[in-house]
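Lab notebook, bench 4. The sequencing result for the construct came back, and we need a structural model before the next group meeting so we can plan mutations. Quick request posted to the team channel:

Model the 3D structure of this chain.
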Amino acid sequence: MIGPKNLLPDSSPLGDEMPASARPPGRPASPPSRRWGRVGLLAVFLCSFPVAAQAKPADAKKGLALAKSGDCVAAVPLLERAEADGHRPATAAALARCHVSLGEVFLGWEIFDALAREKPTREWTADDRAAKASASKQAEELDRRLPRLTLRIKPQDAVVDVLVAGRPVEDLSEPVRAPPDEKIEIRVSGEGFEEFRQSIVLTEGQKKTISVELQREAGDSGGDGTPKPEGPSKKPTSPAPTGPKYWMGARFRGLLVPTFVMNIVADGGTTTYWPGGGLTFGARVGDVDLVTSVSVTSYALSTTPFKPHDTPDTEWELVESDLVGLAASLDVLYVIPLDPKEEGAIKIGAGFGLGWAFAGDLYRWQSYPKDGKEGDPATYQKCAGPNNPAGTFRYCNQLDKDAERYGSADKTWSDGGARPVVYPWLALPLIDFAYRPIDDLGLDLEVGLTLNGFLTGVGARYGF
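Done. Here's the predicted structure in token form:
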């Protein structure tokens, strides 16, 4: 089994220290939290020597107390600082447990594995000895959760350097431990070969084998010593998308508004569907599709009862709408290809924009219970005017706020009414299932969640 240093950064306490000048080119800098963690691990690695520097008691004591209470977010910086100032096994064990609770299983395993191999010193306390005694079992339990990666490199006689998650791999005959549930990069390079790169995410306990077929650089000689002709010889690991960069199209979009969505703002309502359609223009920028559109939507609503929350039965109104809205929007969608040529893809993102209710109106009537039977607003009738029909004055009144609610077009938002003029458009999340039957034709099936309700849509687009 590969030892821990096979998959640790050059600054890892379990591997040989690598000077900055020897760091592989293009190696990204580690995040601050990771660097602090490695400083703490360095102290663990030096545990076979007498502790020369003592940790700041305040940091260690407070960090241990926070870890014991379960507040690992606050405890980790204190424990890391204490380990950097002076290693103690009890502090390191608490730090490892916190890393595991925060999802950093690999980092927790590193610390427990180092503690398990540590030699006791006379300066240790009873807590330090207890941490050492349990470290081996903790390391074994975490080790079973770590994924294993096996690399099969061709040609087999190639002399290569391998990095997994930025850590050098020395023995390719054994599976390599890897951090779970995070994106890691595999890099294989050797003299005379094109560098191989691939990013993957492994789950806990997963075992995966990856075949790496190295391609010789242009002009490099083959195994028989015969120079290869000049020219491009690199074979891409996966074909690039062949589709157009720009697209024009049309789409239908409808909004399904269930009753419970309307009940967020008022009592009553009914499930309704608002259809619409528009024109689109899209462009690919890296792995993101940017799609602009202009669309028209009908917000028609048949006679529907509404009243404000927590108001008496006399406040029921009947509402109708023949509003039509024009909206300009921008969809930002991250593309996840389902095949190398991107004939199928899932796009996930959001849509933003503004709408303008340029036509139609919203109409409101005060209403009264038919035959005096209260409680079922679906049976209520429109008031013809104040106390009309006679005896309905409690429902059909002429209070200032109700005086114009006998079928007149309602006022706009800015005048205290309910009719919108300019309104926001937001779809989050927005998911597009895209299919390209031929290079220049794309088909889309959309679903999403908007401020109004649930979005459904279909579209077609032409590429150029």
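Helices lie at 32-45, 57-69, 72-85, 89-101, 105-116, 126-145, 259-262.
Will bring this to the meeting.
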